[in-house]
Amino acid sequence: MEPFEPKPDFEYPIKKPSFDSVVRQKRREAEQKAEQERYKVANLQVPEEPENEPLYTEMEQKMMDEARELSLVGHLSELRKRLILMAVAIIVGTCISYYYVDVLLEILLKPAGKLYYMKPTEAFFTYMKVSIVGGLIIAAPIILHQIWLFVKPALTVREKQLSNWILPVAIGLFGIGIVFSYFLVLPAAVKFFMGFATDELQPLFSIGQYMDFVLSFVLPFGFIFELPLILIILGYFNLITSRFLKTKRKIFILISFIIGAVISPTPDMFSQTMIALPMILLYETSLFVLAKIMKR
Fold first, then answer.
1. pLDDT, tens digit, for every residue of 88-135?
2. Number of C-beta neighbours around residue 134 at 10 A
3. Res 87: pLDDT
């Protein structure tokens, strides 16, 4: 009898697992997975933080320590020193203006001609007012220089280089504004208001009221002429561009007339326009400088 030999192509019938065995296998796999997760959490080690490298060199740290030594008392002492120097400059400027007050009044009263004073103290206080304003104008360069010396330690190298030409330009623009207002705007304003005179209605200006009108009409032009400098500085630091100024042109025209109405000594449209027009021209000048010269 020949022994039984299975054929090569013989296959055992596949036995399907029961439902219970599949469930038990899934449960074992879930338990093993949960055990592995618990093991990982238990053996998790927080990596040690590397030692912080020094942020500053020894020289930089030394400079910072020396800067901290300048306490609040030191800043206040420095501020007091600057304020005293500014006050002395104003007093000296006021004394110089008072010495030449007759010359100053002759220059300021020239557009109006002969004036009167209605109160016994009106002429005296007018003299003092002109002297003080003249003293402030004379002391303005010293005041700006003291302010610059106070803030200089906090400035960067770039800002210090920029401030070297800002101060002279600011003083020059202020003076140009005063001269422009006195020789062009003030005579036109006085002539306009005196044009309302008739045979029955003659102008009789009081020196006190007239000086208030002149000072409040002339001095704002000194600050208005600082507008190009402010806009060019903002453009230098890439805070604004010529394209931005072009888009805001209409808004600025409206703002210039509002400013003219606020700072004008009289509520008439003529004074408002005489203040607004130079502002608009200065705005356009700044736009030209940013677009054509600075290429911003």
1. 999 999 999 999 988 888 888 877 777 777 777 888 888 898 899 889
2. 19
3. 92
Token pair for residue 93? Answer: 């400027």
The residues, any chain, with a CB within 8 Å of residue 101's CB and separated by 6 or more, are: 127, 130, 131, 134
- Both tokens of 232, joined, read 């060019």
Angstrom distance (rounded) from CA 22 to CA 34: 18
Among 156, 158, 205, 215, residue whose Cα is nearest residue 181: 215
Measured in Å, how far apart are the chain's first and last C-alpha atoms?
109
Q: Tell me, what's the pLDDT at 92?
A: 93
- Residue by residue, DSSP assigns 223-265 as HHTTHHHHHHHHHHTTS--HHHHHHTHHHHHHHHHHHHHHH-S
Q: What is the pTM of this model?
A: 0.64
- Grade residue 46 by pLDDT with cuts at 50, 70 and 90: very low
| Residue 141 token pair | 């360069």
3-state class percentages of the chain: helix first, strand second, coil last, to nearest 5: 75, 0, 25
Collapsed DSSP state (helix, strand, coil) of residue 206: strand
pLDDT in the model for residue 56? 58
Are 117 and 206 spatial neighbours (Cβ–Cβ below 8 Å)? Answer: yes
**Mean pLDDT rounded to a whole number for the chain:** 77
Identify the pLDDT of residue 214: 83
Which tokens sit at 172?
A: 């020059």
DSSP string of 46-112, one letter each residue: PPPPPPPPPSS-HHHHHHHHHHHHS-HHHHHHHHHHHHHHHHHHHHHHHHHHHHTHHHHHHHHHTTT
Q: Return the pLDDT at 296.
A: 73
Residue 191 has pLDDT above 60, yes or no: yes
Q: Cα separation of 212 and 194, whole Å?
A: 17
Reading the block at residue 238, the tokens are 């890439």
